[in-house]
Amino acid sequence: MSQGLQAYQDAWMALVLEAGSPDRLRDEETLGRWLSDRDDLAPHQRSAFLAQGLPRLRQYRSMVRANLADTMAVVYPYARKLLAQRWDKVVDAYLATHPPKAYRLYGCVTSFPGFLASGGHGALGRFPCLPQLAEYELAEASLLRAAEPVLPEGLVDGTPDRLDAWAPVVNPVHALVSGDY
């Protein structure tokens, strides 16, 4: 990727995900000042941002953040349940400190267990199991996304001829990830 295109993309990510991004979209003057302070953007790139218009930029920011938050809720459903009302604040803190480096939504949320383990969000006091739970949920989501099904030894994929051929199967994620809780 060219340096100019990378700078433009970095500016988009900062505008959409950094903690101060809503303030930058308050009015055109504020956005213009923020863009002019970015030495990495060429003048035509600054103009391209301003040409989008504030309503469009706000809508784009809202949609990107909503898609990332939805992806996190799908990958980490029980962490979300545990955190309840704190979930949105923890997700905002995560997105502000871990801007996406991947082009697929799933790739943007994989460092969440490490973020939780760092404790900077304040949720560990009440739920010390949270990082391990998130690690487990991420492993489970990864197995579900696998190109080839992950099956325990001796299990044949498909429908058995006889009902007794189906035996209880240990969760394959449990075989990969285990924790103290």
Please supply descriptive tags for the structure shown above.
181 residues, mainly alpha, 0% strand
Give an overview in words:
By secondary structure, the chain is mainly alpha-helical. It is 59% helix and 0% strand. It contains ten helices and no strands. Helix 5 packs across helix 7, helix 6 runs antiparallel to helix 9 and helix 8 packs antiparallel against helix 9. The radius of gyration is 21 Å and the shape is elongated.
Largest sheet: none
Number of E-state strands: 0
Count of discrete alpha- or pi-helical segments spanning 4 or more residues = 10
Radius of gyration: 21 Å
Task: Provide the β-strand percentage band.
Answer: under 5%
Helical proportion?
Answer: 55-70%
Mean pLDDT over the full residue set: 81
H/E series: HHHHHHHHHH
Structural shape: elongated
Give the CA-CA distance, first to last residue.
Answer: 44 Å
Q: Label the structural class.
A: mainly alpha
Low-confidence stretches: none
Q: Gist?
A:
This protein is mainly α and 181 residues long. It has helices at residues 3-17, 21-24, 28-37, 43-52, 54-75, 77-83, 87-97, 112-118, 130-145, 172-176. The radius of gyration is 21 Å and the shape is elongated.
Task: Please write out the topology.
Blueprint: H1 3-17, H2 21-24, H3 28-37, H4 43-52, H5 54-75, H6 77-83, H7 87-97, H8 112-118, H9 130-145, H10 172-176
Helix pairs in contact: 5-7, 6-9, 8-9
